[in-house]
Amino acid sequence: MITRLEGSWCLVLGASSGMGLAIAHELAREGVHILGVHFDTTDGQEKAAVAGEEMRGHGVEAHFFNANAASARTREELLPRFEELTGGKGIRIVVHSLAFGTLLPYVGAAGEESLTARQMNMTLDVMAHSLVYWTQDLFTAGLLREGAKVYAMTSAGGARVMPSYGAVSAAKAALESHVRQLALELAPSGIAVNALRAGVTPTPSMERIPGSDRLAARARDLNPHRRLTRPEDVAEAVSLLSRTDSSWITGNVIGVDGGELLT
């Protein structure tokens, strides 16, 4: 059954920029209350504060927390606060949009730095494994209930390779695997878990990828729409997919790329 999102709650992990921020804005316009977790310096904190004010202008609550979303202590500290803020309603939508990882090659050329075990573990922990830990704790706390939707942001990089992208590619592949397993285990509770595979999207995290300008130009040329994916495209997909209590669409990698991979 199609339902209204107004009055429900959304948790966005990675809420201060890129897709996470766009999703928070879109859902706030739909009347969804926002819980945002981000990990930023002063400039990022100021940007999050401005975003929160804009969201509250739509008549919703918007609470942003500057904390390391990959830390167990952050979950321990924030979950009781989330329970208090949601007032027993639970969290309808969870968005995992954490993009923090190393972009070093596995085997650097002479004189160049190579990936370390610490960097590999950090990248997978932040960009993949933290999805599992947040979902576990939210479910155990009773904040995820029948009809809830969990989304993880993935990319074509989970199945493709490019220079210096190895650790992130591994994290995306692991993330998609986690989505399938969580979907299996949460299906009896009526909770859907999916990965959204955005096309090449101009975000701060993409700009850090070596050769991102060439990657963007090629994606634009190949995309049937002759443009790149926008964060707002992904935000609209989250809004659309969340308007049902059904958990029948679950365990998928859903392309939100304008047909980018078709060509």
From TrEMBL:
InterPro entries listed in its UniProt record: NAD(P)-bd_dom_sf, SDR_DHRS6-like, SDR_fam
Keyword terms: Oxidoreductase
Domain of life (superkingdom): Bacteria
A Pfam family hit: adh_short_C2
Entry similarity comment: Belongs to the short-chain dehydrogenases/reductases (SDR) family.
Entry protein name: Short-chain dehydrogenase
Source organism: Streptomyces hygroscopicus
